[in-house]
Amino acid sequence: SGQYAAWSADTDKDHVHRRISPGWNHAMATVGMDFTKKFWPFNVFFIVNSWGPWNQAPRDWPKDYPPWVPGMIVTKEDDWEVCVRSEDCYAYGNVDGFPPQKLPDFGAIGLLRHE
Question: Rounded distance, CA 44 to CA 37, Å?
Answer without folding.
Answer: 9
